[in-house]
Amino acid sequence: MSAVFNLRVLGGGLLLAAAGALALHGQPDLEQKWAFMAPEYGARLENREVYIDPAELLHMMNDDYIDLVIYDVRDERDWNIFHLVDAERVSLDDLPAQRDRLRGLSELAVVVVVSNDEIRATQAWKRLMALAKPNAYILEGGLNHWLNIYGVLDEEYESHGTASLHKPDGTLRHPFKIALGARHAAAQPDEHHTPERIYTTKVKLLKKVARAGGCD
Amino acid sequence: MAPLDLTAIFGVNGSYLVYIGIGFCFGFILESSGFGDSRKLAAQFYFSELRVLKVMFTAIVVAMLLVFWATALGLLDYDELMVKQTWLWPGIVGGLIMGVGFILGGYCPGTSLVSTATLKVDGMFFLLGHIVGVVAFGETVGYIYEFWNSGYMGRFLLPELLGLPTGVVVLLVVCMAIAMFLGFGWIQRLIYKRGDPQ
Predict the structure, then answer these.
(1) Which of A76, A82, B96, B120 is in the most buried spot, having the most CB atoms within 10 Å?
(2) Is residue B1 part of a domain?
(3) What range does the domain containing B96 cover?
(4) Hey, what CATH class is A50-193 in?
(5) pLDDT per residue over B46-64, tens digit each?
(6) Which residues of B touch A36 (CB under 8 A)?
(7) What is the pLDDT of residue A156?
(8) Model confidence at B79: pLDDT above 90
């Protein structure tokens, strides 16, 4: 009887001690979780497997079979000046609120994170992976690179040159006279009227697309 | 980092062997703890025998500690574990129905399977009733579709409900389980003038 009682006390004490230690230790936040995941997923960043060419993003924007989610993680000022059609502005701190949505995405969904260059988008990608491991990619060179390719000269609205992509510092390097948001011509360029661009396809869908042919 | 893709590691047949092994251990513990006996299960509700309750809650608490310690140490991604989403109102009604069914029939769906495995007739009839109920529900759910989908809260967990860190909630649940063991044991001794057999 006494031995059984002591075993019960010991078991209860162990459970309490383990729970108390856990309460003190806490659960990993997104940064710590990424640190745990880095050995497995960090190579994708180092090998640039997840940095997609602007032309690949443009192609997906025009592909009705793909459930494309574009997260723009820049601040509101840059967002108001210019953003892609169908992009959603989400700050880095607000990304955790997207978890349920990310977990509910279809196998034909692709998430692309964009920022002015790659710095903030890469931070967001790490957080997304720590949150829900979606099929996520980063716009190579960011919107500065996008505007280098698809930005148009238009005297009435703004003037563009080619912005340097060297030494990225997170800023939008193209000058805009006024904030046009998604009304800018480069927000949704016509894929068939843009210069053909050769790029390596990097996006892999989780499920093969059953594309309908003929009149469909 | 777990959860692991067993099929990728061991192949299809290898993963089946793992599932069989886990199922065997699970069934062995359930049966040896009395989960296949409706009298022992129903006795929990009258405080006359608390073995099933103690086994179940000890398992819950130990599993909870293992899951969250593994998460804290980076061995497991808790977010990758399937957690049932919450539909509050149908959940409450379903819980009430299941509770009444449990105390009337002496089984829950899982324990009726354990009982059937040892060829207990009451377990077989309970399981049969369970299957008929599932079919009947499937055929009539269209009439209560709106209610069935009401109160959706997504993946809603205790830390969110209580506004407390996960570790603190784990500690509270462990305290609750221990308090419950002690309290129910006290009630048992009060009513029946005895404790569980040692």
Answers:
(1) A82
(2) no
(3) 6-192
(4) alpha beta
(5) 998 888 899 999 999 999 9
(6) 1, 74
(7) 43
(8) no
Contacts for B54-63: CB closer than 8 Å, 24+ residues apart: B54/B181, B54/B196, B55/B29, B57/B177, B57/B180, B57/B181, B58/A11, B58/B177, B60/B177, B61/A15, B61/B173, B61/B174, B61/B177, B62/A15
Question: Does A25 sit within 8 Å of B65, measured CB to CB?
Answer: no
Interface test with A, best of B64, B78, B171 (most A CBs within 10 A): B171
Query: What separation in angstroms does the CA of A113 have from each of A28, A131, A173, A180?
Result: 23, 14, 18, 20
Query: Across-strand partners of A52?
Result: A139
Cα–Cα distance measured from residue B120 to residue B183, given in angstroms and rounded to the nearest whole number: 32
The size of the A-B interface in CB pairs under 8 A is 73
Q: With beta carbons less than 8 A apart as the criterion, state whether A15 and B61 touch.
A: yes
Contacts of B178 in chain A (CB under 8 A): 12, 15-16
Could you tell me the maximum CA-CA distance found in chain B, to the nearest angstrom? Answer: 55
User: Of A121, A109, A177, A124, which is closest to residue A146 (Cα–Cα)?
Assistant: A121
In chain B, the number of structural domains is 1
**Is residue B63 within a helix (H) or strand (E), and if so which, with residue range?**
helix B51-72
Region A160-181: mean pLDDT is: 81
Give the strand pairing for A109-114 and B86-87.
unpaired
